[in-house]
Amino acid sequence: MRPDDQVALAAVAGAHGVGGEVRLKLFAEGVESLKRHRSVLAGDRRLTLASVKPGGVGAIARFAEVTDRNQAESLRGKLLTVPRSALPPLGEGEYYHADLIGLPCESGEGEALGVVVAVENFGAGDLLEIERTGGKRMMVPFRPGVADLDGSRIIVDREFLA
């Protein structure tokens, strides 16, 4: 991933109230990860983040340029992105989900298995969604010994390939 590539931090789920606030589905670790950015892109539109707070399972945000419910509703479904270079540096063993998407997956023996198309986390840890060469998809726990990041590829233990 290049430093100028855009990384999605959230998606607008819809309007919240009548004053222009929006409900967000967060892709980042929490509200704080969104607060560190002064502005985001919503499609090709730059928005200034005026406030963001926890709200339900996601967050509630206000943008300086959005002043009523109709404007807020027009953002429904838009991804909120920032340049990859705007993200904090990673520590040893850390990764951004966006960096895993598109990586090739292989067995320990070097057999091509497919490509990572998504990373999900339902509370018990990250799961890699891998699209096999024939189009079938499978999910594999992203943890040591099961699916390991090895440079620019993922090595998957054959025992988890059903």
What does this structure look like?
This protein is mostly beta strands and 162 residues long. It folds into 2 domains: 6-86, Elongation Factor Tu (Ef-tu), domain 3, CATH 2.40.30; 97-160, Roll (SH3 type barrels), CATH 2.30.30.240. The chain is built from 3 helices and 12 strands. The strands form 2 sheets. The chain has a 6-stranded antiparallel beta barrel. The chain has a 6-stranded mixed beta sheet with strand order 10-9-8-7-12-11.
List the topology elements.
Layout lengths: L5 E11 L4 E6 L4 H5 L3 E4 L2 E11 L2 E6 L5 H5 L5 E5 L13 H4 L3 E4 L4 E10 L4 E7 L4 E5 L5 E4 L2 E4 L6
Parallel strand pairs: 7-12
Antiparallel strand pairs: 1-2, 1-6, 2-5, 3-4, 3-6, 4-5, 7-8, 8-9, 9-10, 11-12
Helical fraction:
under 10%
| Low-pLDDT windows of residues | none
Count up the domains.
2
CATH topology-level fold name of the largest domain: Elongation Factor Tu (Ef-tu), domain 3
Mean pLDDT: 88
| Number of H- or I-type helical stretches | 3
The major pleated sheet works out as: 6 strands, antiparallel, barrel
Query: How many β-strands, per DSSP?
Result: 12
Amino-to-carboxy terminus distance: 30 Å
CATH architecture designation of the largest domain: Beta Barrel
Lateral strand order in the biggest sheet: 1-2-5-4-3-6
Please name the fourth-level CATH homologous superfamily of the largest domain: RimM
Rg result: 18 Å
Strand content: over 45%
The CATH C-level name of the largest domain is Mainly Beta
Task: Please trace the helix and strand order, writing H or E for each element.
Answer: EEHEEEHEHEEEEEE
Secondary-structure-based class equals mainly beta
